[in-house]
Amino acid sequence: MASGLVRIALECDKTKEEVKEENGNRRHGVTIPRRLVEEPVWRTYCNGKKCGFAARRESGEKEKKVLKALEMVSMGAGVLPETEETAIGGGGGGGGGEIMYMRAKFERIVGSRDSEAFYMMNPDSNGAPELSIYLLRI
């Protein structure tokens, strides 16, 4: 991020499913209302280049322990050494048990029910965000 602006876009498709009505009939091709952040699978782009997929998951006890370890951090980025409290494993990054973190203030902008943006607010700069995260349902 020291090299400039980073834009992360997460895109998902509108899902159409079969809905069973109260009288037992079925309706096909009905869009199921779901909050944007509840979408299970996303295509990911970083600065306009496709870089894979992302999946939504629920936080568990291990993630809660990491958040507890970062409770006193108000803003910043760094690395937590792996301890018994912060061991989450399975990251796949090959970081040798370390956990990278970034904590900052984000401004949330809702464009519609199918688009949201999060802008990291940097108090040291001229107000331009260094990190932007876009959630889009197309």
UniProtKB/TrEMBL annotation:
A GO biological-process term: hydrotropism
InterPro entries recorded: MIZ1-like_pln
Domain of life: Eukaryota
Alphabetized PANTHER family for the sequence: GENOME ASSEMBLY, CHROMOSOME: A09, PROTEIN MIZU-KUSSEI 1
NCBIfam families cross-referenced by the UniProt entry: A_thal_3588 (TIGR01570)
Protein name per the record: Protein MIZU-KUSSEI 1-like
Species of origin: Brassica carinata
